[in-house]
Specification:
Keywords: Metal-binding, Oxidoreductase, Zinc. It contains ten helices and 16 strands. The chain is an alpha/beta fold. The strands form three sheets. Strands 3, 5, 6, 7, 8, 15 and 16 form a seven-stranded mixed sheet that branches.
């Protein structure tokens, strides 16, 4: 099968950072695994973070990629959610080979039925960010989807990125007032089009700008926990909640949250698959619900740009664009 892989962890401008390769097709699926024939993929910050330069060499080619749409070709003997021919979408498991290949094995419990109203590229933009935003809002921040939080304000730091783009929409469906940050006029317009009530600048201007629109019982940081921890601690409301998806590179004074009895939560959408949690199948359910909301016209795809077919040159281009930090929505590659 055709695939894009790495053996060394190199700067993205190096021609061997990602390269085209022919590899054996995965073996027949066992247990609850599906064998999926990939038709489109999306690229996320996790891709370039995993690929980031380091002193390590793989003994065999490693395939990255954690966003895919495809057709189920075969199912394991214990599968009960899908059958061959089903069109699916998923983010996969970071501990297993990724989706930058023609075929992939993936556990059915973290796979959903792809939205029928979207083409492959549009659907590929959704799984990882939809799972992340859903879990951050409804599991970590404990926002109720029944409208009981209606009118409360959510601050989303990084509203125009992949996660922020779907988080804005999900928050509006729950009745929240959304204040989102953006750095450029075009990204601010994107946030407003998705439903943000207020758009403010991030960076050094965020604290002063955000104070005018609080209080914030909920804060969702999708960008640079290190830079925004102090501001979030000041902005969060008493008994409020902060969730972040970006690792910190330095210690932070969590005692800033004590007087407010505020809480800090981490969200990593790979947790369930990495640890094979008892509720792992919750990701199957939420992906199906997201697909239903898409098909009902209540959510829209967050596709920003299709960069061409699935090959090493286009994947290197996608990694470079994400590393530059100026992407609106999701970057997708479709077909081989």
């Amino acid at each position: 099968m055709r695939a894009v892989a790495l053996t060394q962890y190199l700067p993205i401008n190096h021609p061997e950072a990602l390269f085209d390769i022919e590899l054996p097709k995965p073996a027949a699926p066992q247990g609850r695994d599906l064998l999926v024939r990939i038709s489109a993929i999306a690229v996320n910050p996790v891709d370039y973070k995993v690929r980031a330069p380091k002193d390590k060499v793989e003994s065999s080619p490693r395939i990255l990629g954690w966003d895919a749409v495809g057709i189920v070709e075969a199912v394991g003997s214990d599968c009960r959610l899908f059958q061959p021919g089903d069109r699916v979408y998923y983010a996969g498991d970071i501990t297993r080979p990724g989706c930058n290949a023609e075929y992939q094995l993936v556990d059915e419990r973290i796979v959903g039925r792809a939205p029928a109203s979207l083409d492959d590229a549009q659907a590929a933009a959704l799984p990882l960010t939809a799972i992340t935003a859903w879990e951050a809002l409804f599991d970590r921040l404990a926002i109720h989807r029944d409208g009981s939080a209606a009118g409360k304000t959510l601050l989303i730091i990084g509203g125009a990125g992949g996660v922020g783009s779907i988080a804005i929409q999900l928050a509006k469906l729950a009745g929240l007032r959304v204040v989102a940050t953006a750095s450029r006029p075009e990204s601010a317009d994107w946030c407003r089009a998705l439903g943000a009530d207020v758009v403010i600048e991030h960076g050094a201007a965020l604290l002063a700008a955000a104070k005018a629109h609080g209080p914030y019982p909920y804060i969702f940081c999708t960008s640079d926990t290190d830079s925004y921890f102090a501001a979030m601690s000041e902005l969060v409301a008493p008994q409020g909640k902060i969730v972040t998806i970006v690792e910190a590179s330095q210690p932070h004074p969590i005692e800033l949250l004590k007087a407010k009895s505020a809480s800090l939560h981490w969200e990593m959408m790979f947790t369930r698959s990495m640890f094979q949690t008892e509720d792992m199948q919750a990701q199957h359910a939420l992906l199906n619900e997201v697909a239903a909301l898409i098909d009902a016209g209540q959510l829209r795809t967050t596709l920003g740009e299709v960069l061409g077919t699935i090959n090493a040159a286009n994947l290197r281009r996608a990694h470079a664009q994400l590393e530059a930090g100026r992407t609106i929505g999701k970057l997708v590659l479709a077909g081989f």
